Amino acid sequence: MVDKKLLLFLAGFVWSIAGYNVLHIGCQSYIGNISLKLITLSIIIFLFFKYLIFNKMVKKHTKRIIEYKNSKQWFWKFFDIKSFIIMAFMMSFGIIVRVNNLASESFIAFFYTGLGFALLLSGFKFFYIYIKVNFINNL
Asked: Where, by residue number, does the polypeptide cross the bilayer (predicted)?
């Protein structure tokens, strides 16, 4: 078991690693496919996921973690069961799409780049909250 505040760090770590990996795949797919249209689509995907989905999820998970009554929690409690299911679905779907060539390289480029960057920054937000809760608020 770990201090519940460490769950914020673990969430940041998992989200950042996932975001980096997705962003890396997207950037690799941009090679030979770069265009203003794809960059614009990446920005749209980024804005959609960052502000309409991930910001809400970061707030929801932060609130849930902070409100745990016991200060010690199992390390996997940085997510709830619904979030683990969503993560497993997204990873499985992404792998299936890429392995079976169900999407073009240009689609992978703009979608994965936008999604990955939004996910990475959301991971960084968890790190920021972790630092704020553990160090800044304790000054």
From this structure: 34-53, 74-97, 109-131
